[in-house]
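Researcher: Next sequence.
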Amino acid sequence: YLIFNIVYIPIIIIFREMLFAQAASDALLIGVFAGGQIGLFIYDRAYDYVQLHVWGKIRGRVL
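Model: Next structure:
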């Protein structure tokens, strides 16, 4: 989470004009920040699930 935020937060702040077509309000930036955190959390949980449950079942077939 730390590495993600080290990269993600400056991108949101510095490249504000490139990310949004119109002027972005502070509330929108907070929403984008929260959405990134939620997206990372969901991705992390899905990755853990695949590694624990799915990969063990298909590893023998792949290798």
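Model: The two ends are 31 Å apart (CA to CA). The chain has a mean pLDDT of 86.
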